[in-house]
C-alpha cells in the first residue's frame, strides 16, 4: 500500500473500456475489505461516481487485480471486478476481455513478468472463469509500447496492437444444445469466454437496429430481455442471476453493413456502446455452428483459413473482428477458441485516495 490512505493504482484504457489496475498485494486479500475499498476508490454507489475514479457507466467502472501466477505455463493471474455504479456491488462472476488487453502491459510495468526483445508474450489466467489467454504486444526498451498504428472501433485514434487469444477449454454450449426454448423464445446459450444468450430482436419487441439509448429507454424491451436472462441463467449453470452481470443478452440480426452479423449487447441492464471482446467471441463461435439463432441470420465469409475464420461482428459503433476456430469432438461436444485485436493505453500511474468510510 502507498502511504497511510493511498493505494498504488494505474488507470488504463483496455480496448473500449477503462479500469483501475492494482497489484494484488496492494489491496486487501479478504473479499469484504477489498470490495469496501474498491467501492470507495471508484466513488460507488453514485450515478455520477463524482467522488471517485469511476466514469458513471459499467464500461468505465471496472477493476483488474493482477499477481504473479503459481500455475504452470501461466505468467500472471487476472481477477476482474465489475464495480456497480449506483449500487454498492462488486461482481466477480464475469471476466472482461477489454480490460484483459491492459493486463499484459500492466504486468510488465509493475515488473510482475520478465520480458526482453521487441515483443512480450504473456500468459494470463482469467481467475473469474478459469480460462487462460495469451497477450502479445510490442515492447520498447523493456516497457510496453502504447503508440502505434492499430485502431479499434469505439476508440478514437490509433495505438499499438495487442493480440489476445483464448478459449478451447469449456464446452461452447452449456446446455449441450445449439438452441433452447427459454421464456417462450428460441435462443442460443453459448459461452466462448463470456456466457451470452443470443436472441432474435423481434422476440423481445426490438428490431436490432436501435441505438443503445433507444433500447435503454424501452422498458418493454428491457423487461423482455431480463425475463429471458433470468430464465437462461440457471440453464447455463450460473444459478440465480438476478444479482449477477452474466449472462449477457445479445440481439442478433442480419448484417446491416459488410459484416457477418449485427448485434446489440445488454450488459446486462445497460446497452453496450460497442460489444465486449469475449461477447463477440461467443457470437462469432455461435455463428459457426449450424442451427444456432446466430447462424440462421449471419452472412458467412468464404473459405476456412487455417488460423481461424475472421468474423466481423457489427455493433453500434462499428465492427469487432473475432477470429474463431470451432470444432466438435467425438462425443459431439463443441469447443472454440478466439483471437482478437485490441489496444490499451496507460492513462495515469500513481496513488489513489479512497473516499473515507461514511
Ligand atoms: O465481453 C463489458 C466490456 C465488457 C465485457 C461487460 C468484455 C467482454 O468491457 O470481453 O470486455 O461485460 O459489461 O466491453
UniProtKB/TrEMBL annotation:
InterPro entries: PrpF-like. It comes from the Bacteria. The keyword Isomerase applies. SUPFAM superfamilies: Diaminopimelate epimerase-like. Keywords: Isomerase. Gene3D superfamilies: Diaminopimelate Epimerase, Chain A, domain 1 (3.10.310.10). Signal peptide: none annotated. The keyword Isomerase applies. Belongs to the PrpF family. This is PrpF domain-containing protein.
Amino acid at each position: 500500500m502507498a502511504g497511510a490512505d493511498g493505494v498504488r493504482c494505474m488507470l488504463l484504457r483496455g480496448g473500449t473500456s477503462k479500469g483501475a489496475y492494482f497489484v494484488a498485494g496492494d489491496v486487501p486479500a479478504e473479499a469484504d475489505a477489498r470490495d469496501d475499498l474498491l467501492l470507495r476508490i471508484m466513488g460507488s454507489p453514485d450515478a455520477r461516481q463524482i467522488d471517485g475514479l469511476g466514469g458513471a457507466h459499467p464500461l468505465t467502472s471496472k477493476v483488474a487485480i493482477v499477481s504473479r501466477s503459481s500455475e504452470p505455463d501461466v505468467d500472471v493471474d487476472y481477477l476482474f471486478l465489475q464495480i456497480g455504479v449506483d449500487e454498492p456491488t462488486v461482481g466477480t462472476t464475469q471476466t472482461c476481455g477489454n480490460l484483459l488487453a491492459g493486463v499484459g502491459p500492466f504486468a510488465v510495468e509493475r515488473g510482475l513478468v520478465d520480458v526482453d526483445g521487441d515483443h512480450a508474450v504473456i500468459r494470463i489466467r482469467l481467475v473469474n472463469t478459469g480460462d487462460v489467454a495469451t497477450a502479445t504486444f510490442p515492447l520498447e526498451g523493456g516497457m510496453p509500447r502504447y503508440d502505434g498504428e492499430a485502431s479499434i472501433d469505439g476508440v478514437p485514434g490509433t495505438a499499438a496492437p495487442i493480440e489476445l487469444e483464448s478459449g478451447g477449454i469449456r464446452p461452447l454450449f452449456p446446455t449441450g444444445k445449439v438452441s433452447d426454448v427459454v421464456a417462450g423464445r428460441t435462443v442460443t446459450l453459448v459461452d466462448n469466454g463470456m456466457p451470452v444468450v443470443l436472441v432474435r430482436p423481434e422476440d423481445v419487441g426490438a428490431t436490432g437496429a436501435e441505438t443503445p439509448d433507444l433500447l435503454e429507454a424501452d422498458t418493454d424491451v428491457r423487461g423482455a430481455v431480463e425475463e429471458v436472462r433470468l430464465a437462461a441463467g440457471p440453464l447455463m449453470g450460473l444459478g440465480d442471476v438476478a444479482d449477477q452481470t452474466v449472462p449477457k443478452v445479445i440481439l442478433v440480426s442480419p448484417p446491416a453493413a459488410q459484416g457477418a452479423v449485427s448485434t446489440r449487447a445488454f450488459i446486462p441492464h445497460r446497452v453496450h456502446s460497442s460489444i465486449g471482446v469475449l461477447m463477440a467471441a461467443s457470437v462469432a463461435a455461435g455463428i459457426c455452428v449450424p442451427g444456432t439463432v446466430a447462424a440462421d441470420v449471419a452472412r458467412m465469409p468464404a473459405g476456412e483459413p487455417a488460423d481461424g475464420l475472421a468474423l466481423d461482428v457489427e455493433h453500434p459503433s462499428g465492427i469487432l473482428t473475432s477470429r474463431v476456430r470451432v470444432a466438435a469432438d467425438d462425443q459431439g461436444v463443441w469447443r472454440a477458441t478466439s483471437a482478437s485485436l485490441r489496444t490499451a493505453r496507460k492513462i495515469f500511474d500513481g496513488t489513489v485516495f479512497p473516499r473515507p468510510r461514511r
